[in-house]
Write a structure and sequence with these properties.
Number of strands: 7
Strand content: 5-15%
Strand order of the largest sheet: 6-5-4-3-2-1-7
Shape: globular
Largest sheet: 7 strands, parallel
Radius of gyration: 18 Å
Distance between the termini: 29 Å
Number of helices: 8
């Protein structure tokens, strides 16, 4: 099962994290995703948009490939427009979750202008149909938050029917891998969160350790998340 790596705790707007870039470039991930938070303290919004766009260009030059970026709910519609004025939208794999609220009207307009990824905050009782009808580059559902594997199966099926690529959120990594293994034609890769998942896997009796950007799904019964005995 293919994985993509995310490292959202690094602030790429303060310079290229050279060690992190060297690490991900040699580890064989399908692609990578980086945090692109707006500084809430800045007064010059145009200058901030210029700064973030410059960071995107610098990161992709350092990686030597297209990358995804996650705004982590820190933008607003006006700032998103300022950012688009400074960057060729075709240069990013996707921009994920820029707005603090799931404003589908605004997201619909943004999706026409830049590759957009949504779905992490789609909760149990939310209506996913309107979101999936947007022109999304990636549907990033969280398997646990959306209601578990049973509902996730329905959502993946709906996304596949609409031609929306699915990239499950890494917070629910173990069930997401099982979901991806069951629907390989709909799910190209699962998010692997480099700053958190390795430590979390050490809590399990049999840690899931990626090798060259892929992970082997266990063939034994169960989810594969049995806690360590000590």
């Amino acid at each position: 099962m293919s994985l993509y790596a995310s490292w959202l705790s690094l602030d790429v707007t303060n310079g290229i994290p050279v060690a992190a870039v060297e690490r991900v470039n040699r580890d064989g991930w399908q692609f990578t995703k980086w945090g692109l938070r707006k500084n809430p303290a800045t007064d010059d919004r145009t200058a901030e948009a210029v700064r973030l766009a410059a960071a995107v260009r610098a990161m992709e030059a350092a990686l030597r490939q297209e990358a995804a970026f996650d705004a982590v709910f820190t933008w607003d519609p006006e700032f998103a427009c300022l950012f688009l004025d400074e960057l060729d939208p075709a240069s990013v794999r996707w921009l994920e979750d820029p707005l603090p609220q799931c404003d589908l009207d605004t997201y619909g307009a943004l999706a026409m202008s830049i590759p957009l990824a949504l779905g992490e905050r789609l909760l149990v009782h939310a209506d996913a149909a309107a979101m999936l009808r947007l022109k999304l580059q990636a549907f990033t559902l969280d398997v646990v938050a959306c209601g578990g594997l049973t509902r996730a199966v329905d959502l993946v099926t709906a996304a596949q029917m609409l031609g929306v690529p699915v990239y499950p959120h890494g917070r629910s990594f173990v069930p997401a891998v099982h979901l991806a293994a069951a629907y390989p034609d709909a799910i190209a890769a699962v998010e692997y969160r480099l700053q958190w998942e390795p430590a979390r896997q050490q809590r399990y009796a049999q840690p899931w350790l990626p090798a060259h950007g892929v992970i082997t799904v266990p063939r034994s019964p169960g989810l594969g998340a049995t806690p360590r005995s000590c």
